[in-house]
Amino acid sequence: MRKYIVMIFTLMSVSVFAQSSFYDFVVKDIDGNDFALSQLKGKKVMVVNTASKCGFTPQYEDLEKLYKEYGESNFVIIGFPANNFLKQEPGTNEEIKEFCSLNYGVSFPMMSKISVKGDDMHPLYQWLTEKEKNGVEDSKVSWNFQKYLISAEGKLEKVISPKTKPYDPSVIEWLTK
After folding, report:
1. Number of helices and strands in the chain (H, E)
2. Which residues fall within 8 angstroms of residue 12, CB to CB, at 6 or more apart?
3. Active-site residue (options: 14, 20, 25, 54)
4. Which range marks the domain in which residue 7 is found?
5. Please, are residues 76 and 109 in contact by the beta-carbon 8 Å criterion?
6. How many of the other CB atoms lie within 10 Å of CB of 14?
7. Is 54 a catalytic residue?
8. What is the CATH number of the domain that holds 24?
9. Are 150 and 75 in contact (CB under 8 A)?
10. pLDDT band at 1 (very low <50, low <70, confident <90, very high)
11. Residue 170 scores a pLDDT above 90
Protein backbone atom coordinates (compact mmCIF):
# COMPACT_ATOMS: atom_id res chain seq x y z
CA MET A 1 0.00 0.00 0.00
CA ARG A 2 2.80 2.43 0.89
CA LYS A 3 4.59 1.86 -2.42
CA TYR A 4 1.34 2.54 -4.24
CA ILE A 5 0.84 5.89 -2.46
CA VAL A 6 4.45 6.94 -3.12
CA MET A 7 4.09 5.99 -6.78
CA ILE A 8 0.90 8.06 -7.13
CA PHE A 9 2.53 11.03 -5.39
CA THR A 10 5.59 10.76 -7.66
CA LEU A 11 3.45 10.65 -10.79
CA MET A 12 1.39 13.61 -9.57
CA SER A 13 4.57 15.62 -8.86
CA VAL A 14 5.96 15.06 -12.35
CA SER A 15 2.67 16.01 -13.96
CA VAL A 16 2.38 19.20 -11.89
CA PHE A 17 5.89 20.29 -12.91
CA ALA A 18 5.27 19.50 -16.56
CA GLN A 19 2.17 21.68 -16.54
CA SER A 20 3.91 24.73 -15.09
CA SER A 21 4.10 27.72 -17.34
CA PHE A 22 6.80 30.09 -18.42
CA TYR A 23 4.54 32.79 -17.02
CA ASP A 24 4.92 31.45 -13.47
CA PHE A 25 8.42 32.96 -13.19
CA VAL A 26 9.54 36.33 -11.87
CA VAL A 27 13.04 37.37 -12.94
CA LYS A 28 15.16 40.48 -12.43
CA ASP A 29 15.52 42.97 -15.25
CA ILE A 30 18.88 44.50 -16.09
CA ASP A 31 18.21 47.30 -13.56
CA GLY A 32 17.51 44.79 -10.77
CA ASN A 33 13.72 45.24 -10.73
CA ASP A 34 11.28 42.33 -10.60
CA PHE A 35 9.98 41.39 -14.04
CA ALA A 36 6.98 39.06 -13.88
CA LEU A 37 6.88 36.96 -17.01
CA SER A 38 3.10 36.78 -16.50
CA GLN A 39 2.93 40.31 -17.94
CA LEU A 40 3.82 38.72 -21.29
CA LYS A 41 0.74 36.44 -21.36
CA GLY A 42 -0.74 36.24 -24.81
CA LYS A 43 2.58 37.05 -26.52
CA LYS A 44 5.04 34.75 -28.20
CA VAL A 45 8.41 35.05 -26.49
CA MET A 46 11.94 34.36 -27.63
CA VAL A 47 14.34 33.82 -24.73
CA VAL A 48 18.01 34.29 -25.64
CA ASN A 49 21.12 33.92 -23.50
CA THR A 50 23.47 36.68 -24.62
CA ALA A 51 27.12 37.69 -24.33
CA SER A 52 29.03 40.82 -25.36
CA LYS A 53 32.32 39.19 -26.37
CA CYS A 54 31.15 36.24 -28.46
CA GLY A 55 31.41 35.49 -32.15
CA PHE A 56 27.58 35.46 -32.18
CA THR A 57 27.29 38.90 -30.52
CA PRO A 58 26.38 40.53 -33.87
CA GLN A 59 23.08 38.60 -33.61
CA TYR A 60 21.98 41.47 -31.34
CA GLU A 61 21.47 43.51 -34.52
CA ASP A 62 19.06 41.00 -36.08
CA LEU A 63 17.36 40.36 -32.74
CA GLU A 64 16.63 44.08 -32.46
CA LYS A 65 15.35 44.23 -36.07
CA LEU A 66 13.16 41.18 -35.44
CA TYR A 67 11.79 42.74 -32.27
CA LYS A 68 11.00 46.02 -34.03
CA GLU A 69 9.42 44.27 -37.01
CA TYR A 70 7.26 41.77 -35.08
CA GLY A 71 7.07 43.34 -31.62
CA GLU A 72 3.73 44.98 -32.33
CA SER A 73 2.35 41.56 -33.30
CA ASN A 74 2.26 40.13 -29.77
CA PHE A 75 5.91 39.12 -29.76
CA VAL A 76 8.74 39.96 -27.39
CA ILE A 77 12.39 38.99 -27.06
CA ILE A 78 13.99 38.80 -23.65
CA GLY A 79 17.75 38.65 -23.32
CA PHE A 80 19.52 36.97 -20.43
CA PRO A 81 23.23 37.85 -20.28
CA ALA A 82 25.28 34.89 -19.09
CA ASN A 83 28.98 34.33 -18.51
CA ASN A 84 28.91 30.54 -18.85
CA PHE A 85 30.94 30.17 -22.04
CA LEU A 86 34.62 31.18 -22.04
CA LYS A 87 33.86 34.21 -19.86
CA GLN A 88 32.35 36.03 -22.85
CA GLU A 89 30.04 38.15 -20.68
CA PRO A 90 32.33 39.53 -17.96
CA GLY A 91 30.59 42.88 -17.49
CA THR A 92 28.24 44.13 -14.81
CA ASN A 93 24.55 44.62 -15.59
CA GLU A 94 25.21 48.34 -16.05
CA GLU A 95 28.09 47.69 -18.48
CA ILE A 96 26.02 45.14 -20.42
CA LYS A 97 23.10 47.56 -20.68
CA GLU A 98 25.38 50.32 -21.98
CA PHE A 99 27.08 47.96 -24.46
CA CYS A 100 23.75 46.76 -25.87
CA SER A 101 22.37 50.27 -26.15
CA LEU A 102 25.43 51.93 -27.68
CA ASN A 103 26.45 49.16 -30.07
CA TYR A 104 23.12 47.65 -31.14
CA GLY A 105 20.36 50.01 -29.99
CA VAL A 106 18.74 47.15 -28.06
CA SER A 107 15.23 48.09 -27.00
CA PHE A 108 13.88 44.63 -26.18
CA PRO A 109 13.87 43.76 -22.47
CA MET A 110 17.22 42.70 -21.08
CA MET A 111 17.38 40.87 -17.78
CA SER A 112 20.05 40.71 -15.10
CA LYS A 113 23.02 38.45 -15.74
CA ILE A 114 22.33 34.84 -14.74
CA SER A 115 23.81 31.37 -15.11
CA VAL A 116 22.26 29.22 -17.85
CA LYS A 117 24.01 25.94 -16.98
CA GLY A 118 25.77 24.18 -14.12
CA ASP A 119 25.03 23.96 -10.42
CA ASP A 120 23.93 27.60 -10.23
CA MET A 121 21.61 27.43 -13.26
CA HIS A 122 18.75 29.91 -12.94
CA PRO A 123 15.34 28.26 -12.23
CA LEU A 124 13.91 29.62 -15.50
CA TYR A 125 16.66 27.87 -17.45
CA GLN A 126 16.03 24.70 -15.44
CA TRP A 127 12.45 24.91 -16.71
CA LEU A 128 13.57 25.63 -20.28
CA THR A 129 16.02 22.70 -20.38
CA GLU A 130 14.24 19.94 -18.42
CA LYS A 131 11.36 17.99 -19.96
CA GLU A 132 10.25 17.03 -16.45
CA LYS A 133 9.52 20.73 -15.87
CA ASN A 134 8.56 22.12 -19.30
CA GLY A 135 6.64 19.04 -20.48
CA VAL A 136 8.15 19.17 -23.98
CA GLU A 137 11.83 18.27 -24.23
CA ASP A 138 15.21 18.12 -22.57
CA SER A 139 17.90 20.39 -23.97
CA LYS A 140 21.25 21.82 -23.02
CA VAL A 141 22.34 25.39 -23.56
CA SER A 142 25.20 24.73 -25.95
CA TRP A 143 26.53 28.29 -26.31
CA ASN A 144 25.63 31.97 -26.21
CA PHE A 145 22.62 33.08 -28.26
CA GLN A 146 20.64 29.85 -27.97
CA LYS A 147 16.99 30.68 -28.49
CA TYR A 148 13.92 29.24 -26.76
CA LEU A 149 10.57 29.90 -28.39
CA ILE A 150 7.61 30.15 -26.02
CA SER A 151 3.99 30.06 -27.16
CA ALA A 152 1.43 32.73 -26.29
CA GLU A 153 0.13 30.21 -23.73
CA GLY A 154 3.50 30.03 -21.94
CA LYS A 155 4.57 26.62 -23.23
CA LEU A 156 7.97 25.76 -24.68
CA GLU A 157 7.59 25.18 -28.42
CA LYS A 158 11.06 25.05 -29.92
CA VAL A 159 14.77 25.26 -29.14
CA ILE A 160 16.90 27.07 -31.72
CA SER A 161 20.66 26.57 -32.03
CA PRO A 162 23.00 29.48 -31.26
CA LYS A 163 24.29 29.23 -34.85
CA THR A 164 20.80 29.79 -36.24
CA LYS A 165 20.29 33.46 -36.97
CA PRO A 166 17.22 35.34 -35.70
CA TYR A 167 15.77 35.72 -39.23
CA ASP A 168 15.98 32.02 -40.01
CA PRO A 169 12.88 30.79 -41.91
CA SER A 170 11.98 28.49 -38.99
CA VAL A 171 11.78 31.51 -36.66
CA ILE A 172 9.76 33.59 -39.12
CA GLU A 173 7.38 30.68 -39.72
CA TRP A 174 6.88 30.30 -35.96
CA LEU A 175 6.24 34.05 -35.60
CA THR A 176 3.72 34.23 -38.41
CA LYS A 177 1.69 31.06 -37.77
Report:
1. 6, 6
2. none
3. 54
4. 2-176
5. yes
6. 14
7. yes
8. 3.40.30.10
9. no
10. low
11. yes
